Amino acid sequence: MNRKVENTGKIGIVGSGFVGATAAYALVMSGVGREIVLVDIDRARAQAEADDIRHAVPFAHTLHVNAGDYADLAGARVVVLTAGVNQRPGETRLELLDRNAAIFRSIVPQVLRYAPDALLVVATNPVDIMTHLTARFATQEGVPQSRVLGSGTTLDTARFRTLLAAHLGVDATHVHAYVIGEHGDSEVLVWSQVGVGGIPLEDFCRTQGIDLNHETRAEIDEKVRRAAYHIIQGKHATYYGIGAALARIVNVILRDQRSILTVCAPVEEVEGIRDVTVALPHLVGGQGVLATLWQPITLDERKALHRSAQIVKEAIDSIHI
């Protein structure tokens, strides 16, 4: 099958805060793309971050890193959206959603005006809901929703694999495990489908004499599910992990790698919940989301996924846009 994918290697990042700047740094360190343009309402911040990251180029990979305006996104193959506002004291989650929705209603058309062929990768939290809204705004601009995806549980999946690998005593690259659903408290760790080197988890533990009891599973679940809370408590923000995850997603798109990632994207139905966006194993390539891979999960996991999708759907329906 021929897959013709135009690859300019130009990446736009809208939002130059901790996440946006760290994603740009991760792209440079990994040698992903050839040009990065940082766009922010605070042009001085974007310029400072671009200058600082550019000074790392001689120690890493040759990329052009610049600050710019929306017009400078012209020709971008991928645009990462990390812009948004922080929660105010006393502000409800839904009020925060309304404000970020208003920001994205302005941002998305401007991005697509100058980069109409770009894929949009959303990282702004709550990422499932913001991705759903971005797809809606993009569709209004004539862009298919398959070209919109969010970081979803890509980072949560990495956390799950890392913690499980440490307990099993193997390299995390040999652990296949997924976190699905909301990127948040209701996310679902799919224990039933975990494999290690092609061997089902239970079989691997039995043959290797490893005890993976209920208490250990609960501890891993807690560390994955509450990771952001613990990090924020210690340093007030998370950005290294998600920056690396975004670099991975962008690399998959630019190189048309057709990788399976737990990004979030709009789907018609998830466990009876229609028109919702949550993270699932998706086949991702140069054209965006190519397919959704439905796992044969257990009944309890299906119920948990239903609850997770319901939470996201209720939040989407509550936004005033």
Tell me about this structure.
The protein is α/β, with parallel strands linked by helices and 321 residues long. It is 44% helix and 19% strand. It contains 10 helices and 16 strands. Strands 3-2-1-4-5-6 form a 6-stranded parallel beta sheet. Strands 7-10-11 form a 3-stranded antiparallel beta sheet. Strands 12-15-16 form a 3-stranded antiparallel beta sheet. Strand 13 and strand 14 form a beta hairpin. Helix 1 runs parallel beside helix 2 and helix 3 packs across helix 4. The longest helix has 22 residues. The N terminus is likely disordered.
List keywords for this structure.
three-stranded antiparallel beta sheet; alpha/beta; disordered N terminus; single chain; six-stranded parallel beta sheet; about 325 residues; 10 helices
List the helices and strands and how they pair.
Elements: E1 10-14, H1 18-30, E2 35-39, H2 43-54, E3 64-67, E4 78-81, H3 93-114, E5 119-122, H4 127-140, E6 148-150, H5 154-168, E7 175-176, E8 179-180, E9 188-189, E10 195-196, E11 199-200, H6 201-208, H7 214-225, H8 227-235, H9 240-254, E12 259-261, E13 264-270, E14 273-279, E15 282-285, E16 288-292, H10 299-318
Parallel strand pairs: 1-2, 1-4, 2-3, 4-5, 5-6
Antiparallel strand pairs: 7-10, 8-9, 10-11, 12-15, 13-14, 15-16
Helix pairs in contact: 1-2, 1-9, 3-4, 4-10, 5-7
